[in-house]
Amino acid sequence: MRSNANTIEKILKNASNVGTDACWEWQLSKNKKGYGSVTYHYKAWRVHRLVYTLMVGPVADNLVIDHICRNHACINPAHLEPVTPRENLMRGKTRAAENAAKTHCKYGHELSGDNLVIKSRGNRACRICVRRQTNEWHKKHENILRHRRRERDRRNGIPERKKSSLSPEKAEANRARLKKYRERNREDLNRRRREYYYRTRAQRLESSTQESERIHAFL
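The structure corresponding to this sequence follows.
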């Protein structure tokens, strides 16, 4: 306890406004972000975290110290609070906090209800913009996708599709009917897609197994 008191006394000698309600400003060297650092028991510490640990208590490993006063050089324990890293980001002037506060995307679409998409990384996205970007990508890579479809059909023994001779108006009407049909039978179509995927996967595995057996027999 005596050594802790001596350490605190030495640290506070290098800070201004000590004993007041104002920020206790660290006067020695600071890094680019304004945090001071010291060595304690052969370990580098941020000054504010060390002061909080010695004067208030230990901080859990999954928590960080947040400056309520937003002054990184402050070491006043009354201005420090242990919080989770995410909460610390949300409180500061960070890109994550700015994005979390957004209610509309940059094109003015509302980020709520059916138009809100939560991606695999947890970030939010606008459904309208995602669909537009997907359609643009498919148009840009139309030739590559067509070639992949032909290769897939060739592997599965499906004859090559003939070019449609329908007029643009009739083709558009057919696409609209197909879209309505897909919306009505979405669950059944998804089930058929899954069945087709697993069936073709099993066929590919079986063919690869037979091929490996033939190779081993030849060897």
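The two ends are 77 Å apart (CA to CA).
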